[in-house]
Design goal:
The complex is a heterodimer.
Chain A lengths: L1 H5 L11 H7 L3 E5 L6 H14 L4 E6 L4 H5 L4 H4 L5 E4 L2 E6 L1 H12 L3 H9 L1 H9 L3 H15 L12 E5 L3 H17 L2 H14 L5 E7 L3 H18 L3 E9 L6 H6 L8 H28 L9 E5 L10 H10 L30
Parallel strand pairs in A: 1-5, 1-6, 2-4, 2-5, 6-7, 7-8
Antiparallel strand pairs in A: 3-4
Helix pairs in contact in A: 3-15, 6-9, 9-10, 9-11, 10-11, 10-12
Chain B lengths: L7 H6 L3 E5 L6 H14 L3 E6 L4 H6 L14 H6 L7 E6 L2 H12 L3 H9 L1 H9 L3 H16 L4 E5 L8 H12 L2 H7 L9 H4 L3 H14 L3 H31 L3 E7 L3 H16 L4 E9 L10 H14 L8 H29 L6 E6 L8 H12 L15
Classes of the chains: A alpha/beta, B alpha/beta.
């Protein structure tokens, strides 16, 4: 795996499909979605794709469990390091949390180590970080902002070409996005001024895009609609793309397969395998048909959609992130799953996202 | 490889509390609901304590947010699905915010103080974001239910946490957090206008809080103090209640069940759950693996065989020229499926090899749509409780 990420093989630079190409122009990409939809995998795959394009990419995750770092093959010690860890020449991962960010922040205000340690170990401190309204979220966002502002000492160019943030599961992720503005409005002092600057970057459509990740299943679809509503109506943040993960597709309808009857002589063993092949195709076609119906509501959102097929079938030599990254740059972008049902005739236009936002 | 046994029924029959643990997104809530339905169908007064059910599942279980009086699912609803339970099924929703608010309303001495607490920013932060309070409320609900004795079987769906055992450890953390000595720093000393935090030697605390006040503009001290002063009575209760829940969870009445899926990252987390539970002295009784793709062939055909099969299928299927690519797709799809199934079964075998004890292992196939009503739950129960041989042939082609 490291071979691929580490790149003894020169990376192939494919021209990115339009949606990904647009995302590649930003500085900050956030990924939000319900737990279990493969958000971390999708984020890691986008990060790999951008890194392969030669962009110096930082993937940030807000999680003590460091899922992304694990997916990208980092050892457990590297996973918990305070500084970004290198995965490939241009891909770095940083696992951070509110606790770590607050400690770092306090270190800036209180440079004396013994005093700092006494504070961090005190019960009062534990109280405060656990319960201070949104402090954890605010400081974690502050950490992202801080990475965004880092410059190369020699050239004064940004240290990172692009930063991707894997946010925690939906409800909570909006909390992170909401916090800087809320903090600016409710707090006073230094925090108010700093959160205003963070909020300004978040709201800058030139620099930032919030992306949603979902599955073509009932609950994730309705959660995505809700997250979209909050992002557009309440938070008014610039949106990027909607990634629909694990999409089944079939070039035939279940109707055709029902009419199939096998002719000719076959051995029982052969008949069994042929039977299984048909049955398996039938299941996949059924899944695909059910999903086409379930994702319908998502076509009404003003968001370009990236469809990602079910991967994991190419052999153990390739990781799931690698496979997903590959399909992203080839077929996946904006090619909707086929609808083979006769329920209603659909045209390509039905699937074309209505992108109305100005960038 | 662990034996796959139809003994989940026995497990349910011999325990009073079932706790479902596992990562988010693996079908934990649905599995808990299915187990509870089975309990009701087998004649027990059953409750399912759930955190965040899908809307349709919540509707079918009769859960309405904000409606506190618990009502069992009406017999008519069961009847409409052709079910005739001899027991009852009641679903209870744990809502962190409203549980805290209810507690405040209960303990606040006057309506004015209650409203002041509701408006207190420290309280708002605590009740919404304090890690562990969701878990605590679930535990608290469980303790209350067991104490009331209204139910023979209580199935608990735990909050989706990535951190392995947040659910079990969080209440303990919360208890430490609210422990009386620590609270004393913030509580007004009787008859004085100063906080004990200021009069005490703990200068670091005072210094930190001053810094926080400077940085945030929030009068941290007074807000925290007011909150704790008002809530004294409630917090004194916490310790005892938590003790009861802890005892219950490690008692023989309770069984832990791990819900997972065969994906790589999920299984890695499931392994952490397993080790965490073991360290806490809790034996895992069953593992439910959702979304498993069954291996249909014991040995995958070779590449030559694959080409021959494609040709054979082409000659067998009456397809038009336009439909020709379908044959290639059918074969490719089958082999992809077969490969996926093989990988999953390898991963599952590696996973169960790490177990020192032998919990029950139950595989549930990847269903076209995850259950969201009583019919779906009944189907899920079919996979959970029937022995492999009794399962529909559709999924067990090898048995043909």
């Amino acid at each position: 795996m490291l071979l691929w990420f580490g790149g003894n093989v020169p990376p192939k630079r494919r021209t990115l499909p339009p949606t990904l190409a647009a995302l590649a122009q930003k500085r900050l990409l956030f990924f939000a979605g319900k737990g279990g939809v493969g958000k971390t995998t999708v984020t890691a795959a986008v990060a790999c794709t951008l890194a392969q394009q030669g962009k110096k990419t930082l993937l940030v995750e807000f999680d003590d469990n460091s899922r992304a770092a694990r997916l990208l093959g980092l050892s457990s010690t590297d996973r918990h390091a305070a500084e970004p860890q290198q995965v490939s020449p241009s891909l770095f991962v940083l696992s951070t949390s509110g606790q770590i960010a607050l400690k770092e922040y306090l270190h800036l205000i209180i440079p004396f180590k013994p005093v700092l340690r006494a504070i961090v170990e005190s019960r009062a401190y534990q109280y405060f970080i656990a319960a201070a309204p949104g402090l954890k979220e605010l400081l974690t966002m502050g950490k992202v902002w801080y990475e965004e502002r880092k410059r190369e000492a020699a050239t004064q160019q940004p240290l990172w070409d692009i930063i991707l943030v894997d946010l925690p599961a939906t409800g909570h992720s909006l909390q992170y996005l909401r916090m800087p503005r809320a903090a600016h409005e409710t707090f006073g002092g230094i925090i108010s001024r700093e959160s205003e600057r963070i909020a300004a970057v978040l709201n800058d459509a030139e620099k930032t895009a919030i992306n949603l990740v979902t599955l073509p299943d009932e609950l994730p679809v309705s959660e995505t609609q809700e997250a979209y509503r909050q992002l557009t109506e309440e938070l008014d943040l610039p949106l990027g793309a909607l990634f629909i993960n694990r999409v089944h597709s079939a070039p035939l309808s279940t109707e055709i397969l029902k009419t199939v009857s096998l002719h000719g002589r076959m051995s029982p063993g052969e008949r069994q395998v042929i039977d299984l092949i048909l049955r398996c195709g039938q299941t996949e076609a059924m899944n695909a048909e059910a999903q086409v119906v379930r994702v319908q509501p998502l076509y009404n959102l003003s968001l370009p959609i990236v469809f990602l097929p079910v991967v994991g079938s190419e052999g153990a030599s390739k990781t799931i992130v690698e496979q997903l990254s590959r399909v992203m740059t080839t077929v996946a972008d904006e090619s909707p799953p086929r609808d083979n049902t006769n329920r209603r005739k659909r045209s390509r236009a039905d699937y074309t996202p209505h992108v109305t936002r100005e960038t | 490889m662990l034996p796959e046994k139809p003994e989940l029924n026995a497990l349910l029959a011999s325990h009073r509390v079932l706790v479902c643990v596992g990562s988010g997104g693996v079908g934990k809530t649905t599995t808990a609901a299915a187990l509870a339905l089975w309990g009701a169908l087998s004649g027990r007064r059953t409750a399912v304590v759930t955190i965040d059910p899908a809307k349709r599942l919540a509707d079918c279980l009769g859960i309405r947010p904000g409606s506190s009086p618990e009502k069992p699912i009406p017999p008519e609803l069961f009847a409409s699905y052709g079910l005739q339970p001899t027991g009852t099924l009641t679903a209870l929703l744990v809502d962190q915010q409203s549980a805290w608010d209810a507690a405040i309303a209960r303990y606040a001495p006057t309506p004015e103080i209650r409203d002041r607490i509701f408006a207190n920013r420290f309280y708002q932060g605590l009740s919404r974001t304090l890690s562990g309070s969701h878990e605590y409320m679930a535990m608290d609900t469980l303790a209350l239910l067991v104490q009331q004795g209204t139910y023979d079987l209580i199935v608990v769906d735990t909050p989706p946490t990535r951190q392995a055992l947040d659910f079990l450890e969080a209440p303990q953390r919360l208890q430490r957090f609210l422990d009386s000595r620590a609270r004393a720093w913030f509580t007004r000393a009787p008859g004085t206008r100063t906080w004990s935090a200021l009069s005490a030697v703990n200068r670091t605390t005072t210094f930190l809080l001053r810094k926080i006040e400077e940085a945030t503009g929030i009068s941290a001290l007074s807000e925290i103090s007011e909150f704790f002063t008002t809530m004294q009575a409630m917090f004194d209760d916490f310790g005892e209640r938590f003790q009861r829940v802890s005892q219950l969870l490690t008692s023989a009445e309770t069984a832990f069940l791990l819900v997972t899926s065969p994906e790589y990252t999920v299984l890695a987390e499931a392994e952490e759950f397993y080790h965490g539970l073991t360290q806490m002295g809790i034996t895992l009784k069953a593992v439910v693996v959702n979304r498993v793709h069954d291996e249909w062939l014991a040995v995958s055909p070779s590449a030559t065989e694959r080409r021959r099969l494609t040709e054979r299928l082409r000659s067998l299927l009456p397809l038009s020229a336009e439909q020709e690519p379908v044959v290639e797709w059918l074969v490719k799809n089958f082999f992809a499926y077969q490969h996926l199934a093989r990988e999953e079964s390898t991963r599952l075998a590696q996973f169960t090899d790490t177990f020192s004890a032998s919990p029950l292992l139950i595989r549930v196939p990847a269903l076209p749509a995850f259950p969201a009503d009583l019919a779906g739950l009944t189907l899920l129960n079919h996979y959970l409780f029937s022995s492999p041989a009794e399962r529909p042939l559709r999924r067990r082609a090898r048995k043909r």
